[in-house]
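Appendix B, record 7
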Amino acid sequence: MGTPTSDLPTIFHVTHWKAGSQWVRSILKLAAPDRFVEPAPFPDRPLDGPPRPGAIYTPIYSSHSQFRVAVGDDPSHRTFVVIRDPRDTLVSWYFSLMYSHRADRPTVEESRQELRGLSKSEGLALMLGKQIRGVMDIQREWLDAGARIFRYEDLWADQQGQFARIFDFCQLDVGALRRRYLVHRQSFTLRTFWRFGRPNPKSHFRQGTPGDWKNYFCPDLKRLFKSEYGALLVRAGYEKDEAW
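Structure tokens (predicted):
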């Protein structure tokens, strides 16, 4: 890695699991590879020491409170947050745990064995009470903090326009033509073209289409989700009210 310079803003891409984190990461890394720093995989310790001036940290899976303890509150930093509809996040995470996550970590293998003994609805309900809580904490705290939020669904619908806004917010000095090339090169369509017409639930790129949760939420799971997170879903802009 090159040496980041102090006259460039330090950039932090914060997100939660299953919200296109590796997609955003790949574009930022290609845009400024000499500034790229791999964050630590710990929500409460995402940095190995103080932030490096001018570096780009992507992705960071931390709530606002965890991030501020680890990083501080420097107004010169450019911190943006990518969130995703937590219902789609839940479904995507379910399939990742069932099939595509590497089982070399005990927690993955334990979760996989537990889910295999349940129906899809039962497994999703179990995960709603466990894994998804961290996602909702991240969304809630960053919304409370008034952070610059980008939604995965908007990135999906308008990749060029939304990444242009991210680049502008981060003050990334990349020409428009090169930015467009990088976004196109890493587009979700190009990364998954090989499976068109051949759905594969075992692929880590199984499904990225917004609204896929509707194929898996039974009425009971809907009621359970509303009781736990209905208000936050509305606040994040994913529903107008709780009558979905």
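Remarks on this record: The CA atoms of residues 68 and 74 lie 9 Å apart. The radius of gyration is 18 Å.
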